[in-house]
């Protein structure tokens, strides 16, 4: 009998995120992502809830409203500047830039548009304001080892981990 996803189970899966309006695949994780269910919430809570009770070999689709997870788009987080004011290493669409405000708070901005004169960055999460579908393929469901539970996920063979740095969960 196959095991089902529940707290304490080690799960490996792949997934893709598709924009419901356009049908475009926004991101895809094809290398197996491993985690311990209930100990390391790596995806949105609604995705973890949808995974519960599923088994290896199952493929599920979970609709997500980006506004519920990330809030609505905030246009005050979109900035355009003259390109000559931006260092060369940031002049590529898709580049992530970590910025700090006058209070010392940091936020990641993504370069979204470049032309001959200007560069635009956006501090909104790329999924906010979008309705998306997570399509997940469950590859493995088994009991997690004590090591995996402490680490919250897969333990890579041959990894050099100092046990004194591991914190109990």
Overview features:
Chitinase A, domain 3, 169 residues, mainly beta, four-stranded antiparallel beta sheet, 11% helix
Q: What does this entry show, briefly?
A:
The protein folds into two domains: 9-69 and 128-155, Chitinase A, domain 3, CATH 3.10.50; 74-122, Thrombin, subunit H (Beta Barrel).
Number of helices: 3
Enter the CATH topology name of the largest domain. Chitinase A, domain 3
Q: Strand order within the widest sheet?
A: 2-1-8-3
What would you call the structural class? mainly beta
Percent of residues in helical segments? 10-25%
> Which stretches of 5+ consecutive residues score pLDDT under 50?
159-169
Relative strand content:
35-45%
Report the end-to-end length measured between terminal Cα atoms. Answer: 29 Å
- Tally of separate domains: 2
**What's the Cα radius of gyration?**
20 Å
Gross morphology is elongated
Question: How is this structure best described in words?
Answer:
This protein is mostly beta strands and 169 residues long. It has two domains: 89 residues, Roll (Chitinase A, domain 3); 49 residues, Thrombin, subunit H. Helix content is 11%, strand content 40%. Strands 2-1-8-3 form a four-stranded antiparallel β-sheet. A hairpin with a 3-residue loop joins strand 6 and strand 7. The chain is elongated, with a radius of gyration of 20 Å. The relative contact order is 0.27.
């Amino acid at each position: 009998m196959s095991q089902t996803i529940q707290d304490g189970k080690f799960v490996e899966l792949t997934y893709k995120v598709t924009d419901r309006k356009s049908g475009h695949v926004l991101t895809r994780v094809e290398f197996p992502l491993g985690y311990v269910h209930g100990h390391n919430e790596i995806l949105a809570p609604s995705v973890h809830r949808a995974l519960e009770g599923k088994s290896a070999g199952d493929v599920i689709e979970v609709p997500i409203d980006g506004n519920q997870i990330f809030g609505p788009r905030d246009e005050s987080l979109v900035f355009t500047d003259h390109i000559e004011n931006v260092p060369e290493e940031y002049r590529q669409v898709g580049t992530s830039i970590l910025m700090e405000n006058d209070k010392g708070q940091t936020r990641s901005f993504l370069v979204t548009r470049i032309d001959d004169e200007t560069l635009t960055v956006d501090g909104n999460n790329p999924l906010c304001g979008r309705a998306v579908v997570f399509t997940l393929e469950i590859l493995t469901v088994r009991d997690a080892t004590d090591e995996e539970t402490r680490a919250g996920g897969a333990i890579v063979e041959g990894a050099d981990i100092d046990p004194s740095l591991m914190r109990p969960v």
